[in-house]
Amino acid sequence: MCADYLLELASQLEFETVSACDTRDILEQLLESLAEHSAVTDIPVDEVVLANLHLALHQLDAIARGRGRPAINIPFHVIEGYLLHGFNVKEISELFGVTRQTIHRRMNDNGLRKSDVYSALTQEELDAVIGEIQQSHPHTGYRMMKSFLQARGLLVQTTRVRDSLRRIDPIGTEVRALANRTLRRRQYSVPAPNAMWHIDGNHKLIRWRFLVHGGIDGFSRLIVYLSAATNNRAATVLEAFIGAVNKYGLPSRVRSDKGGENMEVAQFMVESRGENRDSHITGRSVHNQRIERLWRDVYIQVLDQFHILFSNLEREGMLNPDDEGHLFALHWAFLPQLRRQLAFFMDAWNLHGLRTAGSQSPYQLWASSRHHEDPDQVEADYGIDWEGPYGFDDLGHQAGQVEVPQVQLQRHLTEEDMARLPDPNVHFMDAIDIYKATLQQLMQPRSEVDEGGSDA
After folding, report:
1. Mean pLDDT for all residues in the chain
2. Predicted confidence band at 91 (pLDDT cuts at 50, 70, 90)?
3. Strand-strand pairing, 280-282 and 254-256
4. Packing angle between helix 324-351 and helix 289-298, nearest 10 degrees?
5. Over 90: is that where the pLDDT of 440 sits?
6. pLDDT tens for residues 379-436?
7. 37, 199, 242, 319: which sits with the fewest CB atoms below 10 Å from its CB?
8. How far apart are the first and last CA of the chain?
9. pTM for this one?
10. Contact of 254 with 269, CB cutoff 8 Å
11. How far is CA 417 from CA 117, 354, 432, in A?
12. Whole-angstrom Cα distance, residue 89 to residue 237?
């Protein structure tokens, strides 16, 4: 909505229906409002947005003084940030509407070359980092591995990443190469970023009452949110959705299945975007292929290791999914782990190059294509990839509304009880110990717990 308003304001300024002075006052008020919102919500304002608004104010000042269009001074840290996100000089110049020479000149003024932003890791150090990442993400190809590194703040040349993977995992590299040569690419079309978001829930870990809620921008394939929860409530889905809106802006339309967990998002979209325009489109999960395709990668890269671990705990008699105490301990130990793994995957995914988009990343596509027209009305099949993958839940039928009961312990845990629980913020390999310690504490009689606390 803010972006639409600014575009309308720019149009009014172009046709002189509003003065440069009034426009400047409006932008100053907008900056103040953004600062207040950031202070209240503790959500930082995007530095690129602030830089563009200050640049607009600078230009308006020059117009008011009769100097014509001023020299554009793009903040150096903004250029550096875009380079670290994988943008090249040509793409940065197009974002700001300047020539490549302007960007090169700004880089030269600050002694920056593109090669300077690459990591100086030695071959041995790079192999060690990639080997560590591959332990948690064993099916990762070189594009995604490069993005995992980037999510850790390490920008590494593609050739170095590919060569490292060949040294570490030669067989897996050949298998992935063969699979890529036989993969059939699908066609999909929406006009612009934020034209259509696809949202859905993933139930691969529902046996242990874990659910994953996700949303993806249809145009750019940018993951806008990926969250783990132990419930399937509509309020939980809306909270994740609004968090994404605060970060990436309000989409024009949303597509989801007809599950009840999406009802509050549907209401939010109709209230925000209006009625009788398909602000929220529902249908069978087989028509939401954009995110169904994403779930395959989420499972391979993240959920599979949790599924294997929990299944092994069951086989060894250490976990009973019908025991409320076991589930509480499992959630306490592994929910933070699952959330961290999903966040890491999301950061890497949004930075990885897409073959079908000239190796541009989802973030690059989202950031560089945001000024296209969005249709006022759409057809019923808008945002459907008819040749895309079908979406099925673990039970073998199309996923609908899924009820997930809240864990009910035999005794209520007080604040003191919760404070005594072991800290779950540990390395993934140590999470089983947290699970065991939590379970042992839950099984301890209240009297023993109180005595132990008094002895301390």
Report:
1. 79
2. confident
3. parallel
4. 110
5. yes
6. 555 554 444 444 444 444 444 567 788 888 888 889 999 999 999 999 998 999 999 9
7. 37
8. 56
9. 0.65
10. yes
11. 48, 48, 20
12. 38
Judged by phi (left if over 0) then psi (alpha if -120 to 50, else beta), residue 249 lies in left
Q: Determine the Cα angle at 288 with ends 151 and 228, to 5°.
A: 45
Q: 26 burial class (0-12, 13-18, 19+ CB within 10 angstroms)?
A: middle
Which tokens belong to 137?
A: 């993400």
DSSP code, position 426? S
Tell me the two tokens of residue 385.
Answer: 């990839």
| Residue appearing with tokens 């202070």 | 39
What is the residue-wise DSSP string for 266-335? HHHHHHHH-SSS-SEEE--GGG-HHHHHHHHHHIIIIIHHHHHHHHHHHHTTS--TT-HHHHHHHHHHHH
**Token pair belonging to 252:** 């024009």
Residue 214 main-chain phi, psi, to 5 deg: -140, 160
Instruction: Determine the pLDDT at residue 197.
Output: 94
pLDDT, tens digit (0-9, with 9 covering 90-100), for 191-232: 889 989 999 999 999 999 999 999 999 889 999 999 999 999
Query: Nearest to residue 233, comparing CAs of 199, 194, 261, 193?
Result: 261
**Is residue 153 within 8 Å of 118, Cβ to Cβ?**
no
H-run or E-run covering 241: helix 234-248
Question: Which amino acid, 218?
Answer: G
CA distances from 407 to 190, 209, 271, 329, 363 (A): 41, 9, 34, 10, 38
**CB under 8 Å to 263, separation ≥6 — which residues?**
234
Structural contact between residues 230 and 310, judged by C-beta atoms closer than 8 angstroms: no
In degrees and rounded to multiples of 5, residue 262 shows phi and psi of -100, 0
Q: What is the pLDDT of residue 307?
A: 95
